[in-house]
Every structure is written in structure tokens, then in C-alpha cells.
Write a structure and sequence with these properties.
With 167 residues, this protein is an all-alpha fold. The protein has helices at 2-10, 13-32, 63-82, 89-105, 126-134, 140-151, 162-165; strands at 106-107, 112-113. Strands 1-2 form a two-stranded antiparallel ribbon. It is globular.
């Protein structure tokens, strides 16, 4: 995501071209970490880090990670278009993971994305929902519901770290 942001700020296509092989190799590594749904899931001994929050449900696939993965696929799609590549694998992956994230993590009753579906707790935190608003996961209707049910809801634990307060 940073590589494309650098390009947007600088217009430096040559920088993107130079680092693209490394960016692509990182995406290949991520692909190896996905499950049958295409979600990144933690393995024994992994540290699932979204924030220093104690309020996140980190069982199984974690919504905030899937939204970041979706954003990475979207960014790779844009990088490929920038570099005039004809491959569409990242577009397909982006559309697939975006749809599956909505299907598995959106909770209509709560009007928000839940952290995890594996635990059955239906825990809602600010983290995944902030990413959903910022990174285009949520449509306009869901953005309004997220603001009402999460962002402006004092019952949802507040973000307390400088790291995530940035978002």
C-alpha cells in the first residue's frame, strides 16, 4: 500500500518498477498463509497484531486482517495497471476477498463487522470497522451504520494506542 501511496505523492514510476518484484514476492508469501476461503489465519505461535487492544477477538480469521489483505490485493491491481501488466489475478483476488469478508464478518443485527466468526462471540471492535470505512470495504449505507453503531457508540471500547488512533 505504501508503494502506491509513494507513487501517488511523487509520480515516481521508476521507483515502483524497481521495488515491484519485492512487493510481488511479499504477496506470494501472503498467499501461502491463506485458508480455503482465501483468508489469512493465524497458525500456532503466530502473533496476530492489529493493535495493542485487549478487546479484539483473534480466533481464526480476523476481520481487520482480511480488510488489510483486500486493500493489498486492490493496491496490487492498481500497481499492475500502472506498470501496464495485463494480469488480472489481483483484481479477482480483491473482488473475492472483499465479497467473502462481507459474507463472513458483516453482522446485520449489530450493523457492524465482527472481529471473528470462528469464536461465535460476535465481538465488535473499532479496528475492523475503521478499516472498513477507510479502505472501501463498507458501502455508504454500511458506513453510516458503522458510524452509528461503532464509531459514535461509547459502549464499544475506545482506541487507546497512538498507533491505531492515527486511523
Amino acid at each position: 500500500m505504501s508503494a502506491y501511496q509513494h507513487y501517488e505523492m511523487s509520480g515516481d514510476v521508476e521507483f515502483v518498477r524497481a521495488i515491484y518484484p519485492k512487493v510481488k514476492s511479499m504477496m506470494e508469501f501472503l498467499k501461502q498463509q491463506t485458508d480455503e476461503n482465501g483468508f489469512i489465519t493465524g497458525r500456532p505461535g503466530d502473533w496476530i497484531f492489529i493493535d495493542w487492544s485487549e478487546s479484539l477477538d483473534k480466533a481464526g480469521a480476523v476481520c481487520a486482517e482480511q480488510i488489510l489483505l483486500s486493500r493489498c490485493y486492490h493496491t496490487m491491481w492498481k500497481l499492475e495497471k500502472l506498470l501496464e501488466s495485463r494480469a488480472s489475478v489481483y483484481q479477482e483476488k480483491y473482488l473475492s476477498i472483499k465479497e467473502k469478508t462481507d459474507r463472513f464478518f458483516w453482522n446485520e443485527r449489530k450493523g457492524a463487522y465482527v472481529d471473528s466468526f470462528a469464536s461465535g462471540w460476535e465481538n465488535v471492535s473499532r479496528h475492523a470497522n475503521i478499516f472498513a470505512v477507510l479502505f472501501g470495504q463498507a458501502d455508504e449505507s454500511r458506513k453510516r451504520r458503522i458510524c452509528e453503531n461503532v464509531i459514535f457508540n461509547e459502549e464499544i471500547p475506545q482506541i487507546t494506542t497512538p498507533f491505531f488512533r492515527f486511523f
